[in-house]
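Review box. Two proteins, two foldings.
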Amino acid sequence: MFTPRWPVSVQLASQLSAAKAADLRSALVPDLKAEDALTAAHELAGEIARDQQLVDAVFQFEQGDADQALGAIGSLLEAQPDWVEGHVVMAQLLSQTGSIAAFELFLSDTIRSAGDDIALVTTCLRLLSEAGRHAKVDALIPVLRARHGDHLFFSLIEAITASETDDLGRADRQFARAAGQGGLLSLPHVRHLIRKGDVTQAATLAEAFVARHPRHQGAWGLLATAWRLTGDSRHDWLVHRPGLVRTVDLGMPAETLAALAVRLRALHATRCQPSFDQSLRGGTQTAGKLFRRDDPELRHLRDLMRRAVRAYIDALPPVDASHPLLGRDRSRFRFTESWSARLVDGGHHVSHVHPQSTISSAFYVTYPQDPRQTGHSGWLAIGEPPDDLRTGLGPLQMIEPKVGQLVLFPSFLWHGTRPFPRGERMTVAFDAVMGE
């Protein structure tokens, strides 16, 4: 699945400018001929202008003018149809409009018109796969094999598609085929092995992956699941540590919370449900990084959350170098993403992890007081693998939503919410990275 980290104008500008700075350094090396350096400089100037137009369009989209923004990016892509980064941004913005058809049509049309541009083809195919458009991926693979040959990527993507659609035998064959082509089988294969019940092999592969990528929270989430299914004692070492999950009352007065709710509803007013790319079902999510906004209500909330995260880190158990949270540098942290989610009648979040973060959160701004709510309706479920892994495992902990309360937990822990019958459940959430 896509993660909730869409390119926003500030983040995108930073990424593009860093890439262009590297290009500029390359163009100015002393042994480059003057005429070649001049040509490189002209090309780079054109790319910088193009990139700025892309950043401007994304900012325009964030401000609510989706049609103009998408039109501007479309014009850029017409002028440079092989621009991979531009296609990625266009697809991700289309996904935020809530139109599955527009997202799928854009990517499939790009793939068909890409000719021999294998980089553009594989990027677009990966985006379709990550968004769960498996039928479309399956339809495209034979066409692409006929055009490009038996590429390793096609074997891997077909294996993923087959596994995610319960064609487990075909998935086994394609994963084996990819391995024979030199592919490194990693997290998609781990998911497949868990789904088919081969949890010992899943644990072995996941352990090898985290040895190479010790900060990948998604890998730790899958490894935790495999260890739990096999009864490995390391599951307790990973998840059952005091203070990993904590609730904090931020002490916000009722009138302050009410003003925050009014401001957030205005930001949700023009948003639609990101129905096929994120964990949210039955509601809306704000665009961009919420904590970069200059609204006084959000500045105040950010300051309170910063203090709460600092206290959470300071109270963690002793340093454990091999643990994905307890082994991180505690001297500093930074917010990487921030957003608000608004769920209404029957809304919920499917269980997920945040692969690129360290600490994740949920702060309750509003929550319905409905007598028809029974049991754990609307509650936050911690540690419950997603249904599509078919583990049969329940949550490790259930947390009741309370207005004004912040929940903090490691990003590698599965988390989702139970549906609730009626009303508004509005939260602010962030991801934070320790040691950076």
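Next protein.
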Amino acid sequence: MFIAGNLLLGVAFVLDTLLFVYMWLMMIRVLVSWVNPDPWNPIVQFLTKTTEPVLIVIRRRVGTLQGGLDISPFLAILLIVFLQYAVVASLHDLGMRLQ
């Protein structure tokens, strides 16, 4: 059973790292959007291509607030934190019990 435990611990670590990196990409995109970036910049294009699929789903369900305030990045970051605490922590705990 220790192999399954180690496997789950590895999956939890990788998933936690990917969620952490994605959260920082989301934060960087928000910060860059405040300075009116050049849309042809490769970094801006990368940030848009990696974060827009999640943001567009949230925008469809929530919309924007009055005045055009887009809260989808904030909700995406909250979702990432929830996944880290709920899913990753559960995988980690299960992996520790199987060792």
